[in-house]
Write a sequence for this structure.
């Protein structure tokens, strides 16, 4: 079964610094991977996704993530943090198997809260 | 374009009272529909999902139930709320297997 581990429940960076949020996955089949962002008391918004093809995926708000099969990782990065990036970020893997027996539901990590200091 | 509506945004209910949260999707047909519950520090827990009208799958045993009376309507219910039912509830839809999910704005439920 697929699973996701997000390393670090809280990450704090200074404005203008690099943002790195870590995500490792476990999957017995080629994974579909996603990053979402959640602002307080709101729903989740898709930042980016990886299904097939190019392993470096660019998303909204200047974020990108790189799929590394050898490391089973899908870390989220942004070169320069902005105050508006302060939010909670969730990594997710699709519970999908081409052999069937699954519905393709998303399995989420526990989230990482990003704080941005002025 | 597709939109998802979830209401109410906040709800305070006494223990033992019934619950009904509604979610509707516009701009798509035959979506997969989901109910998640979010607790602080625990991520998102999938409660129910539905691949079609009247088809409900439950992921965890609990005090809640779900129904899908129409293609784009998903309802989360309880006959008698417990304190432990408090949380942030999120409805979502997806276009099918392996695709991303799109979320509603959530309902903050407080059981007192």
């Amino acid at each position: 079964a697929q699973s996701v581990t997000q390393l670090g429940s809280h990450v704090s960076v200074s404005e203008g610094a690099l943002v790195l949020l870590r995500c490792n996955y476990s999957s017995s089949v080629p994974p579909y991977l996603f990053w979402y962002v959640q602002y307080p008391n709101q729903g989740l918004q898709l930042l980016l996704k990886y299904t097939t093809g190019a392993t470096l995926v660019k998303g909204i708000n200047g974020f990108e993530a790189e799929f590394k099969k050898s490391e089973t990782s899908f870390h989220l990065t942004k070169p320069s943090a902005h105050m508006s990036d302060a939010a909670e970020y969730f990594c997710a893997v699709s519970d999908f198997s081409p052999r069937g027996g699954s519905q393709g539901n998303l399995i989420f990590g526990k989230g990482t809260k990003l704080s941005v200091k002025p | 374009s597709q939109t998802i509506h979830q209401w109410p945004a906040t709800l305070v209910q006494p223990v033992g009272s019934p619950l009904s949260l509604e979610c509707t999707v516009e701009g798509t047909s035959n979506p997969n529909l989901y109910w998640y519950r979010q607790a602080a520090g625990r991520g998102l827990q999938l409660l129910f999902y539905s691949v079609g009208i009247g088809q409900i799958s439950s992921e965890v045993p609990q005090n809640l139930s779900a129904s899908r009376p129409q293609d784009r309507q998903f309802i989360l219910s309880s006959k008698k709320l417990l304190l432990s039912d408090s949380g942030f509830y999120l409805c979502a839809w997806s276009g099918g297997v392996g695709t991303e999910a799109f979320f509603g704005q959530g309902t903050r439920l407080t059981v007192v």
The radius of gyration of chain B is 13 Å. Chain B touches chain A through 27 residues (CB under 8 Å). The mean pLDDT of chain B is 92. DSSP finds no helices and eleven strands in chain B.
